[in-house]
Amino acid sequence: MFKTASNISLRLTRKSQPQIFSRTLRAYSTPAKNMEGFKKAGNRADAPPKHEMVHFPGLMSEKRSFGDFRTVLHTGLYSQIVAMEVPVGGDIGDEVHTVDQILLFTSGRGLATVAGKDQEVKAGDVVVVPAGTQHQFVTKGDQPLELITVYSPAEHLPTSVHKTKEEGDKAEDDEIDEAPEWALKPKAENEKSGEVREDAKY
């Protein structure tokens, strides 16, 4: 796949208008079933999403467990939603992305280091990491650190599920876990092609 600057993740320790339709999911009784429901709700196909609502009920709730280190839930034309669970004693890796990243913490405690500045984080906190900024997040305490992260534009393959950080790192090193080209196109190109229309008629 042709690589552009916007879909390359540089790890410092390695080489480096109204919505007409609605799609939702039912409430589930267990965390595992919740995650399967979340995965079904979002756009995880290697194609632009439909012009409809995507609803993740309870995604920000503290009463659940994501389980896997990284699960891509939805990939849009200009953003991507990813659920993460960093295990006790774990971290996400000292890294730099060429895309913006917003992290919304839902459970546990951690230490955020962004551009050399440390900040303790907990459930309910939000951290913004601008594109091209060094960052690291480490779990603190006896519970995993869970969060929803929003990349803009996308950073990962729409179908990515990584059980562990090591699995995710290998997928990136092998150039398997990369954002699709359609998720990296500029607004002007999408508008010219009719992929995005101000009259919302498709």
TrEMBL record:
Domain Cupin type-2: 84-151
Regions of compositional bias (Acidic residues) in chain numbering: 169-180
Compositionally biased spans, kind Basic and acidic residues: 184-202
CDD domains according to UniProt: cupin_Bh2720-like
Pfam family of the protein (one): Cupin_2
Gene3D superfamilies the UniProt entry points to: Jelly Rolls (2.60.120.10)
Disordered: annotated segments: 158-202
Spans traversing the lipid bilayer: none
Name the UniProt record assigns to this protein: RmlC-like cupin
Source species: Dothidotthia symphoricarpi CBS 119687
Lineage: Eukaryota, Fungi, Dikarya, Ascomycota, Pezizomycotina
